[in-house]
């Protein structure tokens, strides 16, 4: 009986890594997804404490659209729409303006600009993996009109 248990345990141990590796190969996300997740984690870490998920999503949307405008033909940023969206960093989670001192305002602008730059850089790197697909996805995104904080010029 002990020999049978050991044999079964060995068989399970030897077959598990192979099946796990096979499963990972079949379900591994594209490198660009991992890149985007890594940048998102880094941005969240930098902005923790001063920005909520809504602010972070807005900064990611702006960084993505800036990268598209910088790398894809037919895209440009509407400066007024960009400024209006970026100014949301001064609002609280309730959507109302926060009462901020000059120093707090400067710190928020500094951190938001850093987060925006990190997202922009990440999106530029992602676009370099497959520029055609990146621009095609942006064209579909703009046509869908459902994305939040669209600041591309019309």
User: What is the averaged pLDDT score?
Assistant: 84
Specify the number of helices.
6
Number of strands: 0
Whole-angstrom Rg: 22 Å
Largest beta-sheet characterization: none
SSE order in H/E notation? HHHHHH
Q: Which structural class do you get from the secondary structure elements?
A: mainly alpha
* Shape annotation: globular
Helix content: over 70%
Q: Please report the distance between the alpha carbons of the first and last residues.
A: 75 Å
Strand content: under 5%
- Uncertain runs: 1-16
Name the descriptors.
154 residues; mainly alpha; 6 helices; 0% strand
Verbal overview:
Helix content is 73%, strand content 0%. It has six helices and no strands. α2 packs antiparallel against α5, α3 packs across α5 and α5 packs across α6. The chain is an all-alpha fold. The longest helix has 28 residues. The N terminus is likely disordered.
């Amino acid at each position: 009986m002990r020999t049978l248990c050991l044999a079964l345990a060995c068989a399970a141990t030897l077959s598990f890594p192979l099946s796990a590796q096979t499963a990972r190969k079949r379900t591994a996300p594209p490198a660009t997804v991992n890149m985007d997740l890594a940048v998102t984690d880094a941005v969240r870490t930098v902005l923790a404490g001063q920005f909520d998920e809504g602010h972070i999503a807005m900064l990611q949307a702006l960084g993505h659209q800036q990268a598209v405008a910088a790398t894809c033909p037919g895209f440009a940023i509407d400066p007024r729409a960009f400024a209006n969206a970026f100014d949301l960093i001064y609002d609280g989670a309730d959507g109302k303006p926060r009462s901020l001192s000059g120093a707090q305002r400067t710190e928020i602008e500094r951190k938001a600009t850093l987060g925006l730059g990190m997202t922009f850089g990440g999106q530029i790197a992602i676009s370099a993996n497959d520029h055609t697909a990146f621009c095609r996805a942006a064209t579909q995104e703009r046509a869908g009109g459902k994305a939040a904080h669209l600041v591309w010029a019309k």
